[in-house]
Design a protein that fits this description.
By secondary structure, the chain is mainly alpha-helical. It has helices at 2-14, 20-40, 57-68, 73-92, 119-128, 134-149, 153-157, 187-204, 225-239, 247-260, 265-272, 277-280, 288-298, and strands at residues 164-165, 170-174, 180-184. A hairpin with a 4-residue loop joins strand 1 and strand 2. Helix 2 (20-40) crosses helix 4 (73-92).
């Protein structure tokens, strides 16, 4: 089974062109299923090697039952999606005659409302990062760009200086599925990037242009998504804001503030790089104050 998982990983990378993060999650979920089969002594042949041909709906049901004791619905849904994709691939490549997951439906997902910061809180957060150290200047640029553009953290860390057009006020980012899109960026964020670009050259001795990575860590390497998350969390704690958000929370904040200011949902969809409008519709939540204000203005008996 291990060889087949490896082949499936190559298929996801090459033919499906999925991101390294998505492929890593898929393979991790499949290895967890493989571990379950070993632990339970299921579908094993000589030398305790897993025989995928012996996986049937009863085995899958037993696995999902075990997951239900320790995982949320969202996690189970993702692990089931990985299994479905894997076994579809095995049928397509004729490793197995039929798909044991054909009749399994993905569990209905919980849909929590996105967590976001109020306008007062985001201004407080951005105003709190005023240090003169290069890493503080870098962090200010990170926060300004995240809020100004709504880009994903993976898109942020993938930015090169050549992806920024300071004259036109746009960024070129590589999104999910290696889809390129252009997003506008505000003047305040651009100035934060200019300030950081000057210090970037002084600290790491590299010109802020071309294929050079924009956001660097202490050692001069490209920042990871986790290191950006740590920077956001650090500055959020420093302001004493009680809402817990990471980089994705700033993306939610960007979308929510645009929507609350009257931006069209389809425009927000394009800016966020969502393939489906239904994903963007999560942001149509409104706060009670707005709701009552609209009611008071619109209802004849309010």
């Amino acid at each position: 089974m291990e060889d087949l998982i490896e082949q499936f990983g190559n298929y996801l990378r090459v033919e499906r062109n999925l991101s390294p993060h998505t492929v890593r999650n898929y393979l991790s979920d499949l290895k967890q299923f493989q571990q379950f089969l070993h632990q339970e002594g299921l579908c094993q042949g000589k030398g305790k090697k897993i025989k995928v041909q012996e996986v049937d709906h009863n085995v899958v049901r037993a696995y999902l039952g075990a997951l239900a004791k320790v995982c949320r619905k969202s996690s189970i849904g993702r692990k089931l999606a990985a299994l479905k994709g894997f076994f579809r691939y095995l049928v397509k490549e004729r490793h197995i005659p039929r798909d044991p997951l054909l009749l399994f439906a993905t569990p209905k997902q919980e849909k929590p409302l996105p967590v976001f910061l109020s306008i007062d809180d985001i201004f407080r957060l951005l105003g709190n990062v005023q240090g003169v150290d290069v890493l503080e200047i870098r962090d200010r640029a990170i926060l300004e760009v995240l809020y100004s553009t709504g880009v994903r953290v993976s898109e942020l860390v993938g930015l090169n200086w050549g992806d920024i057009d300071f004259r036109l006020g746009i960024l070129r980012v590589l999104g999910k599925g290696s889809k390129e899109r252009i997003v506008p960026v505000g003047e305040v964020a651009l100035q934060a990037l200019r300030d950081y670009g000057v210090e970037h050259g002084k600290r790491w001795g590299r010109a802020a242009k071309g294929e050079a990575a924009v956001f660097l860590n202490r050692l001069g390497g490209r920042m990871t998504t986790r290191s950006v998350a740590r920077a956001v969390e650090k500055h959020l704690r420093g302001t004493g804001i009680p809402v817990r958000v990471g980089p994705h929370g700033l993306r939610h904040t960007f979308a929510t503030h645009l929507l609350n200011s009257g931006a069209d949902l389809r425009v927000i969809q394009e800016l966020l790089g969502h393939a489906s409008l239904s994903t963007t519709q999560r942001y149509t939540h409104v706060n009670l104050e707005q709701l009552t204000a609209v009611y008071d203005r619109a209802h004849p008996r309010a």
